């Protein structure tokens, strides 16, 4: 075969050799590379859109959970509210007495005025002496037939429904529904907290792609297009059963157009029913820009190839013309004419190759300079991204603690009217102010421990004798510089998980010592602890490359910040024994200019 190809090439005219080489070496590879680049651009645009949509869905999931926490906390407070219990179970002798009671009970209205997330609060009661005032509503047969009402009576857990009723003042909103039992009176009622549709829609109004949130019955409770609210997922014709498909990324045809559908699920705290979050975008719309660029590139490549073909044809004709002239002169020499003078124009091949070589070297040098500059720019971008990520991780704080603390203070003042709340308010204000003042620089051990003590005192106010804490600090270590918010997340984790599933008092200890020019920090609790498998999973989450979900994000942030600032050997170390407690510790090298 090799001999046959060589024989064919040797017998081919020079002009045809040049044209064949051009087609085989230039035209075909360029067309293949162009097709690959086109596919790559299209796939990159689609992958980027999917990644952006997944991030948007996660953001919406977090925002929705925060929004639903407000009615959840309110319902938890009303579950044990003495005034509500008395209001719902008192037998009123006449309309005057009932109107006076309605006039004095303003708690529902105060919640609506205080929280913009709440549209209305209703309580459905079996008390026959009550009259419907749009807040306290006597239960009738029509209400008893409602699915949400029957579901609420099955237990005290929280349920979420988009309630579509035909009352004189219908709800037509996403609502929290739960049973409120009154064991002392052997009665019960149903609490309904309707969310503000404006807040739900505003949360999705700035989303680039069509996004929906549906309840467990498939009814849309919020959407980028407000007209979709109240409709069912089946009525929107998404191409398949979203709720049955579950969480994932799917492809389907919507209105005859290929589309991608991102589906995620959200189960709010203390709830038995959750939500489905759907984001839809058209594949054609995403790849439209990439297709346009690919088409323009293909036209440019085709024009260049045609121009190159014309030039190759002209050059091959010039070369073959000169070779024929040289061959003619050689024939004259072969015939014995030694006086022939070659009249072939142009310089010799060696000089031409030398000039081409110099041009090639110059081109390679320019290309290397461009590659070096691009590499330097990428390095600077990576350093900037690491710095930004460090600042972002340093600025994170879990707002759940602040909300719980504020709710505890409010309920304490509301139910008992005790004066010691002033101290807790001052500590909480101090803690919030310090968190807001924290920047991307450093702080001292003493300042960090001031925040830790404030946090522990507030938590001790919430949990009383269930929480005992101890802070031990060597005197010569208190002025050492450390990153801000590096101890407080560990203490918060110890309090939350130490008290979890344990009724006896829990002790949280913070020990800070100096050994061999290293600052050693240890946070330990004697809570329920963890099994070996749970500990291994926790370490994998905080040390892995993927961003975790749930409570371990605080530990991961501290671990990542320590490694970014001091190296991989300075990350978090965790020890835990079931029924004995958990200890988290790490070390920080002392800087040369730190004051002892």
Automatic annotation (TrEMBL):
Q: Which GO terms describe its molecular function?
A: phosphorelay sensor kinase activity
Record keywords: Cell membrane, Kinase, Membrane, Phosphoprotein, Transferase, Transmembrane, Transmembrane helix
Entry membrane topology: Multi-pass membrane protein
Q: Which Pfam families does the record associate with it?
A: HAMP, HATPase_c, His_kinase
Give the location in the cell: Cell membrane
Which residue ranges run through the membrane? 20-41, 295-319
GO cellular component terms, A-Z = plasma membrane
Q: Does the keyword Metal-binding apply?
A: no
Q: Where does the secretion signal sit in this chain? A: none
Q: Which domain of life is it from?
A: Bacteria
Which CDD domains does this chain map to?
Answer: HAMP
Residue ranges annotated for the HAMP domain, each copy included: 317-369
Q: This chain belongs to which protein, by name?
A: Two-component sensor histidine kinase
């Amino acid at each position: 075969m090799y001999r046959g190809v060589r024989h064919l090439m040797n017998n081919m005219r020079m002009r045809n050799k040049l044209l064949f080489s051009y087609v085989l070496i230039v035209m075909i590879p360029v067309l293949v590379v162009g097709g690959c680049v086109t596919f790559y651009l299209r796939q990159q645009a689609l992958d980027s859109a999917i990644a952006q949509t997944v991030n948007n869905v996660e953001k919406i999931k977090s925002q929705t959970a925060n929004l639903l926490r407000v009615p959840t906390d309110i319902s938890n407070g009303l579950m044990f509210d003495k005034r509500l219990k008395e209001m719902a179970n008192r037998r009123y002798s006449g309309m005057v007495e009932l109107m006076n009671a309605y006039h004095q009970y303003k708690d529902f209205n105060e919640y609506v005025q205080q929280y913009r997330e709440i549209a209305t609060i209703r309580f459905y009661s079996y008390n026959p002496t009550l009259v419907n005032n749009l807040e306290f509503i006597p239960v009738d047969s029509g209400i008893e037939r409602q699915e949400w009402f029957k579901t609420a009576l099955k237990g005290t857990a929280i349920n979420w429904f988009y309630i579509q009723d035909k009352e004189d003042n219908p709800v037509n909103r996403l609502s929290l529904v739960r049973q409120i039992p009154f064991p002392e009176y052997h009665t019960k009622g149903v609490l309904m907290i309707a969310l503000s549709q404006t807040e739900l829609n505003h949360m999705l109004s700035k989303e680039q792609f069509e996004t929906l949130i549906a309840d467990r019955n498939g009814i849309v409770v919020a959407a980028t297009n407000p007209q979709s609210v109240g409709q069912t997922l089946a009525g929107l014709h998404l191409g398949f059963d979203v709720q049955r498909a579950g969480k994932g990324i799917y492809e389907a045809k919507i209105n005859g157009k290929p589309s991608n559908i991102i589906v995620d699920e959200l189960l709010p705290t203390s709830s038995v029913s959750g939500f489905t979050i759907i984001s839809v975008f058209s594949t054609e719309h995403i790849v439209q820009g990439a297709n346009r660029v690919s088409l323009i590139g293909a036209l440019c490549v085709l024009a260049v190839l045609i121009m190159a073909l014309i030039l190759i044809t002209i050059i091959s004709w010039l070369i073959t013309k000169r070779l024929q002239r040289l061959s003619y002169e050689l024939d004259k020499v072969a015939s014995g004419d030694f006086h022939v003078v070659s009249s072939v124009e142009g310089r010799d091949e060696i000089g031409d190759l030398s000039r081409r070589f110099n041009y090639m070297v110059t081109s390679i040098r320019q290309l290397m300079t461009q590659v070096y500059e691009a590499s330097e720019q990428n390095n600077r971008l990576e350093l900037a991204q690491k710095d930004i990520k460090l600042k972002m991780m340093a600025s994170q704080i879990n707002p759940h603690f602040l909300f719980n603390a504020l709710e505890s203070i409010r309920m304490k003042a509301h139910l008992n009217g005790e004066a010691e709340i002033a101290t807790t308010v001052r500590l909480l204000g101090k803690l919030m102010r310090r968190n807001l003042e924290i920047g991307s620089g450093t702080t001292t051990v003493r300042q960090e421990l001031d925040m830790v003590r404030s946090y522990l005192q507030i938590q001790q106010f919430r949990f009383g004798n269930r929480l005992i804490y101890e802070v031990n600090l060597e005197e010569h270590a208190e002025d050492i510089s450390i990153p801000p918010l590096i101890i407080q997340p560990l203490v918060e984790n110890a309090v939350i998980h130490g008290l979890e599933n344990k009724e006896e008092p829990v002790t949280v200890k913070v020990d800070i010592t100096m050994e061999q020019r290293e600052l050693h920090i240890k946070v330990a609790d004697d809570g329920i602890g963890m099994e070996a498998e749970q500990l291994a999973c926790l370490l994998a989450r905080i040390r892995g490359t993927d961003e975790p979900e749930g409570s371990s994000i605080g530990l991961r942030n501290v671990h990542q910040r320590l490694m970014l600032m001091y190296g991989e050997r300075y990350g978090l170390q965790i020890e835990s024994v079931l029924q004995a407690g958990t200890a988290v510790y790490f070390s920080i090298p002392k800087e040369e200019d730190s004051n002892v």
